[in-house]
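pinging the channel bc i need a second pair of eyes. not urgent but kinda urgent?? the chain im working w is below, pasted from the shared doc
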Amino acid sequence: MKIRYLHVNDLAVLGPAPHWPYALPEKTFTRMFGTNTPVLMAVPTRPGTVRALLAARGETSRFRVVGYREPARPTTPEGLLEHSGISAAALSAQAALMIKEHSG
C-alpha cells in the first residue's frame, strides 16, 4: 500500500478548468489524485466549499473532505481540531477506515 501526502496551497485549483482560471488541467489532476484511489482531504476551511469544487469536476464518491466546523461553544485549539475531525487521531482513524473499505 502506498500513501501520498499532497499540500495544495490554493484550493481553487481543484475546480474545473473552464470556470477557474488557475484550475489544474485534467491530466495533472489525474496524475496527482489518481482515478480510483480514495482521497482524504483535510482543509482549513469549510469542507462544503471544497466538496463543491470537486463535484464540479464530477469527483464526489472517492473524496472525503474534512475541515472547519463551528463549535457549539468556546473550545481550545485542540478541541476545535477534534471537533472538526482534523486532529491527528481523527485523520488517522478516518484514513484507516478508508483503507479498510477500499481493500475489502
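so The beta strands are 39-42, 63-66. and Helices lie at 26-33, 47-56, 77-84, 88-103. — does that match what u expected or am i reading it wrong
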